[in-house]
Design a protein that fits this description.
CATH topology of the largest domain: hpI Integrase, Chain A
Strand order of the largest sheet: 5-6-7
CATH architecture of the largest domain: Orthogonal Bundle
Number of helices: 15
CATH superfamily of the largest domain: Intergrase catalytic core
Structural class: mainly alpha
Largest sheet: 3 strands, antiparallel
Length: 385
């Protein structure tokens, strides 16, 4: 009978012929060697040499800190040149380094920070998941995604949408490896991502006016309120209003406009200033340098801390955050007052109309008013109280 070499690794195995034969009666199954035959010494010597070759190959891979796989062992035992093993975390790190070089050109710093967080989570999760420091790209499959999603929603306390965002970035990391030619297809394609619809909260006009009418003594609260209200009146995001300078405020078409590019996407946008916004901007224009920030914008954490104080002073039940102001512009200031959604989308700097349509979903009162107007047009004789 021919004697085969079998190598088992991680529930997988490969077999290949040793080139030796032995009569079944002369084989010690327990000792895995030939016995009671004059050829036994030669057969066992060959088998010992083959085992030594396998152990040497494993040692070389471990010394080079390359993960031991059956494919690599097969290549080494055949005497073939071993190609560099491209592993998941190495690719993720390379992606982030490349991404970092394009911040401010092709990508925003905010997007880079998101990928840094993703890499941080993966560096914690992968060793816990696999028992190894890194894993092959093909191991980032459905099973991996399912375990990573559970990890994010339990140990990292991410909500469903937050966890899905992380999975999305993992998919982009694997696609990056595909573009580099490291693998041919994405092993996590079968894992579906389903975002939970989010109800966008916005301030009412009454709540905005209450904030504007507060009699404040502390300068820090005055500064924070001005920033927040200007966001409400223009739709500027926190990252955009931090970058706002007097150069972005331009006169034309009968009034002031803010013209700039979104920090997040690099998309250009223009917003004509409402009278309430003009009164805030004119307060800061005389004393501002050309390229210096126009308003006194604190860190996002400090902004939100002071917004909590303003929330209590104005007795507003909603949780005031810098992003709530952008929601309020989209719904209360514009869409609720009949501004077409296409116009609102352009002012917000959205690249897709579907992004803006999220705000339109909460305007039940606007839908009711529009239908009442339609009803009146269809029935001119109908009168209402």
């Amino acid at each position: 009978m021919p004697i085969y070499i079998r190598i088992s690794l991680n529930n997988d195995r490969m077999e290949y012929p040793s080139g030796q034969t032995v009569h079944i009666e002369h084989w010690d199954d327990k000792g895995q060697k030939a016995v009671r035959t004059k050829e036994a010494k030669t057969v066992n010597s060959v088998l010992t040499t083959l085992k030594a070759d396998i152990n040497q190959a494993i040692s070389q891979l471990q010394i080079s800190k390359t993960e031991v796989t059956l494919d690599l062992l097969r290549s080494m035992l055949k005497g073939e040149a071993v190609k560099e093993e491209h592993t998941f975390l190495k690719v993720a790190q390379a992606h982030n380094e490349s991404f970092k070089q394009q911040v401010g050109k092709k990508y925003s710093n905010g997007s880079y920070k998101n990928y840094k967080t993703t890499l941080k989570y993966l560096l914690e999760f992968v060793p816990e998941y696999s028992g190894k420091k890194d894993i092959p790209l093909k191991a980032v499959n459905y099973k991996f995604c399912e375990a990573y999603f559970t990890y994010l929603t339990t140990k990292k306390n991410c909500n469903v949408n937050g966890a899905n965002k992380q999975i999305q970035r993992v998919k982009k990391l694997v696609n990056y490896a595909i573009r580099l030619g490291y693998i041919q297809s994405n092993p996590m394609d079968t894992f579906s991502i389903e975002f939970v619809p989010v109800h966008k909260v916005a301030l009412t006009m009454e709540e905005i006016n209450t904030l504007a009418g507060l009699d404040l003594k502390r300068q820090v609260l005055i500064d924070v309120r001005d920033v927040f209200l200007l966001q409400c009146y223009t739709g500027l995001s926190y990252s955009d209003i931090r970058q706002l300078t007097r150069e972005h405020v331009q006169a034309g078409n009968g009034g002031y406009w803010i013209r700039m590019k979104r920090q997040k996407t690099g998309v250009s946008f223009a917003v004509p200033l409402l009278p309430m916004a003009v009164s805030i901007v004119e307060k800061y224009l005389p004393n501002s340098a050309a390229k210096a920030p126009l308003l006194h914008v604190l860190s996002n954490q400090k902004m939100n801390e002071n917004l909590k104080v303003l929330q209590e002073l104005a007795s507003i039940p909603k949780n005031l955050t810098t992003h709530l102001a952008r929601h309020s512009f989209a719904t209360t200031i514009t869409l609720s007052n009949g501004v077409p959604i296409e116009t609102v989308s352009r002012m917000l700097g959205h690249t897709k109309l579907t992004t803006t349509q999220v705000y339109a979903k909460v305007l039940d009162t606007k839908i009711g008013a529009d239908m009442a107007l339609l009803s009146k047009k269809l029935n001119p004789s109908q009168t209402t109280d």
